[in-house]
Amino acid sequence: MEIPDMASEKHPCRPEMFDFEGISMTTFFTDNWEKVKNFQSRPDDILIATYPKAGTTWVSYILDLLYFSNDDPECQTSQPLNMRIPFLESCFQEFSMVTGTEMADSLTTTPRLIKTHLPVQLVPKSFWDQNSRIVYVARNAKDNAVSYFHFDRMNMVQPEPGDWNHFLEKFMKGKNVFGPWFDHVSGWWEKKQTYSNLLYLFYEDLVEDTGREVERLCSFLSLSTSVEEREKITKVVQFDIMKQNKMINHETIPFMDFKISPFMRKGKVGDWKCHFTVAQNEQFDEVYKQKMNTTLKFRTEI
Ligand code: PPS
Fold it and tell me: Least C-beta-crowded within 10 Å: which of 2, 174, 231, 240?
């Protein structure tokens, strides 16, 4: 099957958004919904859950290395990460890609690492029933919004973002694919209070001290990875090295246009300062105060 060339800024195939269970979605994440909803998790599965652009790929790669670098180093240099870690709700069949559920069902690894951007209330029930382990990664709203804006510019299967001001308005209203950032990060934070198999990580902590966060992951997952191995992993998951790694940097994905923006773009905390005007920042802070009535605290600079 021929893969359509999606690398054009004004591509007619950019999807419409619609309301799905109270969340803005595109058909790429709802077309396979019955199978997603009824997905059978296993007790040893590890679900990597994030709002888009919060550090999914980073933590996915760290987990992949922690579990599989000794068993199958060849796989890591020959198979893109997105072929090894299924994106549960994804359904890009028109690009000859198997659905996330099919890929997860056919995974032979133990554990299975599975990625999702679903808000907590839409996660398939079996993950809770099986008491699967979950790693959630959250990123401060301002940097998350900037990263999402550039992603929507370069990813032709995302809705057209418009200009930065338009996108930011949409972000504040929670009208992005996978819904409001505010509800996503706080919904998962609330869940953590009652579900002990959930580790809640912050992108800013990963940038500040990657090695410490790798150690935190090992401790949560009861992994006895040696200090040497952890140090090795910490080195290869640094931004500049990951950016050069074709198996990780998403270069193999047909609908992303790297001429517009790379997937591994800046990898910084505080890049929002290069995008927000003073007025936008004040308005954003006001909206943030209204929507974030929670104990959850983020750092917008480190
Ligand atoms: S996605 O599409 O939702 O899976 O994207 P996701 O992987 O969650 O987020 C992409 C952003 O994470 C940055 N990133 C990193 N930053 C620092 N260090 C490392 N190693 C790293 N790996 C990925 C990536 O650059 C995107 O952020 P921005 O701000 O756009 O650069």
Answer: 2
Please work out whether the CB of residue 237 comes within 6 Å of at least one atom of ligand 1: yes
Q: Which residues are catalytic?
A: 117
What are the residue boundaries of the structural domains of the chain, listed by start?
18-291
The tens digit of pLDDT for each residue in 40-82 reads 999 999 999 999 999 999 999 999 999 998 666 666 778 899 9
pTM (two decimals): 0.95
Q: Is the CB of 242 under 6 A from ligand 1?
A: yes
Would you say the CB of residue 150 lies under 6 angstroms from ligand 1? yes
Closest by Cα among 198, 94, 219 to 138 = 198
- Contact criterion met (CB below 8 Å) for 133 and 221: yes
Write out pLDDT tens, residues 148-202.
Answer: 999 999 999 999 999 999 999 999 999 999 999 999 999 999 999 999 999 999 9
Each residue of 131-145: pLDDT tens digit? 999 999 999 999 999
Interatomic CA distance for residues 65 and 85, integer angstroms: 12
Each residue of 267-294: b (16+ CB within 10 Å) or e?
A: bbbbebeebbeeebeeebeebeeebbee
Query: How many Cα atoms sit within 13 Å of 116 on the Cβ side?
Result: 28
Q: Name the DSSP letter for residue 24.
A: E
Class of the domain covering 18-291: alpha beta
